[in-house]
Description:
4 copies of one chain form a homotetramer.
Chain A: H1 5-16, H2 22-25, E1 28-33, E2 38-44, H3 60-79, E3 85-92, E4 100-110, E5 114-123, E6 128-137
Antiparallel strand pairs in A: 1-2, 2-4, 3-6, 4-5, 5-6
Amino acid sequence: MMADHETALARLNEELTRPPFHQVLRPRAVDVDIQKNMVTIALEYRDELARTPGEKTFHGGVIAAFADLAGHAAVAIKIGKMAPTIDLRIDYLRPVDASALTAVATLIQAGRSVARVDVEITDSRGRKIALSRGAYSTI
Amino acid sequence: MMADHETALARLNEELTRPPFHQVLRPRAVDVDIQKNMVTIALEYRDELARTPGEKTFHGGVIAAFADLAGHAAVAIKIGKMAPTIDLRIDYLRPVDASALTAVATLIQAGRSVARVDVEITDSRGRKIALSRGAYSTI
Amino acid sequence: MMADHETALARLNEELTRPPFHQVLRPRAVDVDIQKNMVTIALEYRDELARTPGEKTFHGGVIAAFADLAGHAAVAIKIGKMAPTIDLRIDYLRPVDASALTAVATLIQAGRSVARVDVEITDSRGRKIALSRGAYSTI
Amino acid sequence: MMADHETALARLNEELTRPPFHQVLRPRAVDVDIQKNMVTIALEYRDELARTPGEKTFHGGVIAAFADLAGHAAVAIKIGKMAPTIDLRIDYLRPVDASALTAVATLIQAGRSVARVDVEITDSRGRKIALSRGAYSTI
């Protein structure tokens, strides 16, 4: 049985608070679309996430971590448990200077042993900042 | 002229303190091998880097960020400047339960427009935890 | 000035015949959408492209080659020249048993030094067979 | 029980002749190192493998296919069966102009569900042409 939209969103936000490292990143789920297997997560800029002092430049490692956690969320919504990352590719499309990022993670495949997720990360103005594609172990 | 080993190591450690996000991660350069184009960086476990509360599990996003910054360091040592990441692949080989990680980053190619770096991340017992391979823009 | 649709399609098909290896694969451009930066290419099954004797299984290497050439086509339509592949990731979603494959290649970014292309490969029944994402050098 | 070196090499060469597409590529196993989990495979240039007419340029798709089959060989030598590719990354380091290529495939991990293989492809002069890293399903 699938939980409805509000319940799924609340549960995802609760799960996002659990990993201690997420208290550094503070991701916030803003939408869960169960039909489309999509999850939308926001990440607000804070100075400790920057690459360059005094500029709203999200560090490349922060973007990678954001892509990774969004991918996990898209798998978890579908299969109801955490699936370890097998591998992850991140493409950095442009440098960031933004007060927030949004990741839209779409589950491409949920197989018996492997799931795949695509993530698109955009900035406050809607420009594509980064893409990721990952394989996750669903066994 | 190449700086000697101690100078290169000291300079790398200074550069590693600059990005604000590195005050979260606190990476520490432990070796620079200019002949082999290799850089070795250590990352100590702290609770805020964990995936699971109460366990020395480095979050997958922390591992990705660690791979990314080690890759940057290997390029910077060679070309003397920061090269933006074009793309990065990370392979997660096993879950982590360790008090520290070590990344050895090897510059594979330093072309006029693209550099490539391989990173191997091991835990305190020398087991391979993750591998990464990245392309960096050297223009 | 952009060539119109028919001219672009004819030119692409002419270019696809040029590489000697394409006489093995025999790809055929079926659509060029200049507005959307998309190219659609078909690949008919022939026994010499198989992985398993007597089955319409396209070899994984054939799928990789197909993804690569479709990616090149999407870049070439935009920038008017061949751009060498920097790197390419291919995700194999399911085994193939089909009389033909279709690749839809979408140019995601055409920067001064790097282009990115996503390719989706489907079989005769419209099922996703493979995805690829590549970085190409546009210098 | 592990077959000895000559037997393993002969068996690999026999298996390499089986896929119909390999009659196009004609890969030839030249070494199997069971201790190091390494397989070495050669690929001779023939005109139908070229990208540019009249030049000994192996097509990028041929290089991708060569990397893929070398990866499969490294897994098969270890686990005794064919393991489907989950995903594959290929890095193209330089254009090729060579009468032959050599792929050295090293099994990095052979887990219960996933294997990983690194492949290094060099030309007749020993220069690195391409690298690949792949994940394979061992279930």
